[in-house]
Amino acid sequence: MGEFDLIARYFTRPATKAALGVGDDCALLQPTPGTQLAISCDMLVEGRHFFADVDPFALGHKALAVNLSDLAACGATPLAFTLALALPRADEAWLEAFSRGLLGLADAHGCELIGGDTTQGPLNICITVFGEVPVVDGKSQALLRSGARDGDDIYVSGTLGDARLALEALRGTLILPPALLAQTRQRLEQPTPRVALGQALRGVASAALDLSDGLLGDLQHILQASGVGATLDTAIASNLIAVHTHPALETGIIPSEKQLEYVLAGGDDYELAFTAPASAREAVRTASQQAGTPVTRIGRIEAERGLRLVDANGQPVPNTFSSFDHFA
Ligand code: ADP
Ligand code: MG
């Protein structure tokens, strides 16, 4: 199978939203009048972001999911994406599963594959997504990192730390019961981008971002961009791990001090963290219900710079957690 057969067979589908899709030198996108394009790019590299033996269906899903998560963080509506793919060989079973995982998620979000590049080389997947956000009265409705203000509430969506739990089990640093491994592995390998929640938070959240490297590290980006500080409640946070009621925690299979670490600094969560003024609590609840995605209020923005952790009694908890950094 040659390069062009491969593209035709696995990555070419009729364009419905785009003015022109795969096949020419450029794709053509016609943004809806009164909107801005939101653009983001994420790369997945074998050995760094996934293991060589990962299920190709899950990999196709995840490659697009992490990009859709960026659109979600901005409150953008997905439109289209491009796929730059380096493959060691044209393995048909692999390509069939990969493209099924990729295009299944794409269809679920109405996000069209409109072009890309295909080359032989070490497995590497780079996707650029395009979305749109409305401009109302000359003002972009995009959610940014820079809008958090003193007194705002801090929220996170869904659950945190489950992906890290699976990663530790796959690395062999702890042993999980099979059902628990399957549950957490699903979160690691097939994250759910919170696209509907991001859109529902337009005009409600003051700042937002998606969590890829761990809550504490990622939240710092909001604090820095907004010129503020924050206090987080670790008692609420530690229960954000989906498996917090699982007997494995009681029996010590998962060390209890690790529970909080995985939530605060686990990485690969692809949930949204966002801020909103206290006056918007009802609107946040409505957005969460509309999107069908639970959210939890875990702290508060403060004028004093820095990130502080407290326990249930408001007593300081030392912050010894470090989040992921490719070059640290
Ligand atoms: P060019 O020679 O202009 O770089 P290519 O030969 O690389 O174009 O690609 C031919 C067409 O196939 C283009 O429309 C390109 O966008 C598309 N394409 C290439 N690789 C992929 C891919 N992995 N997924 C989707 N479209 C692709
Ligand atoms: Mg090319």
UniProtKB/TrEMBL annotation:
<keyword id="KW-0479">Metal-binding</keyword>
<keyword id="KW-0067">ATP-binding</keyword>
<dbReference type="Pfam" id="PF00586">
    <property type="entry name" value="AIRS"/>
</dbReference>
<keyword id="KW-0808">Transferase</keyword>
<feature type="domain" description="PurM-like C-terminal">
    <location>
        <begin position="150"/>
        <end position="310"/>
    </location>
</feature>
<feature type="binding site">
    <location>
        <position position="40"/>
    </location>
    <ligand>
        <name>Mg(2+) 4</name>
    </ligand>
</feature>
<feature type="binding site">
    <location>
        <position position="213"/>
    </location>
    <ligand>
        <name>Mg(2+) 5</name>
    </ligand>
</feature>
<dbReference type="InterPro" id="IPR016188">
    <property type="entry name" value="PurM-like_N"/>
</dbReference>
<feature type="binding site">
    <location>
        <position position="49"/>
    </location>
    <ligand>
        <name>substrate</name>
    </ligand>
</feature>
<feature type="binding site">
    <location>
        <position position="25"/>
    </location>
    <ligand>
        <name>Mg(2+) 3</name>
    </ligand>
</feature>
<feature type="binding site">
    <location>
        <begin position="116"/>
        <end position="117"/>
    </location>
    <ligand>
        <name>ATP</name>
    </ligand>
</feature>
<feature type="binding site">
    <location>
        <position position="42"/>
    </location>
    <ligand>
        <name>Mg(2+) 1</name>
    </ligand>
</feature>
<feature type="binding site">
    <location>
        <position position="25"/>
    </location>
    <ligand>
        <name>Mg(2+) 4</name>
    </ligand>
</feature>
<comment type="function">
    <text>Catalyzes the ATP-dependent phosphorylation of thiamine-monophosphate (TMP) to form thiamine-pyrophosphate (TPP), the active form of vitamin B1.</text>
</comment>
<feature type="binding site">
    <location>
        <position position="268"/>
    </location>
    <ligand>
        <name>substrate</name>
    </ligand>
</feature>
<feature type="binding site">
    <location>
        <position position="324"/>
    </location>
    <ligand>
        <name>substrate</name>
    </ligand>
</feature>
<feature type="binding site">
    <location>
        <position position="117"/>
    </location>
    <ligand>
        <name>Mg(2+) 1</name>
    </ligand>
</feature>
<dbReference type="InterPro" id="IPR036921">
    <property type="entry name" value="PurM-like_N_sf"/>
</dbReference>
<keyword id="KW-0460">Magnesium</keyword>
<feature type="binding site">
    <location>
        <position position="145"/>
    </location>
    <ligand>
        <name>ATP</name>
    </ligand>
</feature>
<dbReference type="GO" id="GO:0009030">
    <property type="term" value="F:thiamine-phosphate kinase activity"/>
</dbReference>
<feature type="domain" description="PurM-like N-terminal">
    <location>
        <begin position="23"/>
        <end position="133"/>
    </location>
</feature>
<feature type="binding site">
    <location>
        <position position="210"/>
    </location>
    <ligand>
        <name>Mg(2+) 3</name>
    </ligand>
</feature>
<comment type="similarity">
    <text>Belongs to the thiamine-monophosphate kinase family.</text>
</comment>
<dbReference type="InterPro" id="IPR006283">
    <property type="entry name" value="ThiL-like"/>
</dbReference>
<dbReference type="InterPro" id="IPR010918">
    <property type="entry name" value="PurM-like_C_dom"/>
</dbReference>
<feature type="binding site">
    <location>
        <position position="70"/>
    </location>
    <ligand>
        <name>Mg(2+) 3</name>
    </ligand>
</feature>
<feature type="binding site">
    <location>
        <position position="70"/>
    </location>
    <ligand>
        <name>Mg(2+) 2</name>
    </ligand>
</feature>
<protein>
    <recommendedName>
        <fullName>Thiamine-monophosphate kinase</fullName>
        <ecNumber>2.7.4.16</ecNumber>
    </recommendedName>
</protein>
<dbReference type="InterPro" id="IPR036676">
    <property type="entry name" value="PurM-like_C_sf"/>
</dbReference>
<feature type="binding site">
    <location>
        <position position="212"/>
    </location>
    <ligand>
        <name>ATP</name>
    </ligand>
</feature>
<dbReference type="Pfam" id="PF02769">
    <property type="entry name" value="AIRS_C"/>
</dbReference>
<keyword id="KW-0784">Thiamine biosynthesis</keyword>
<feature type="binding site">
    <location>
        <position position="70"/>
    </location>
    <ligand>
        <name>Mg(2+) 4</name>
    </ligand>
</feature>
<keyword id="KW-0547">Nucleotide-binding</keyword>
<feature type="binding site">
    <location>
        <position position="42"/>
    </location>
    <ligand>
        <name>Mg(2+) 2</name>
    </ligand>
</feature>
<keyword id="KW-0418">Kinase</keyword>
<comment type="pathway">
    <text>Cofactor biosynthesis; thiamine diphosphate biosynthesis; thiamine diphosphate from thiamine phosphate: step 1/1.</text>
</comment>
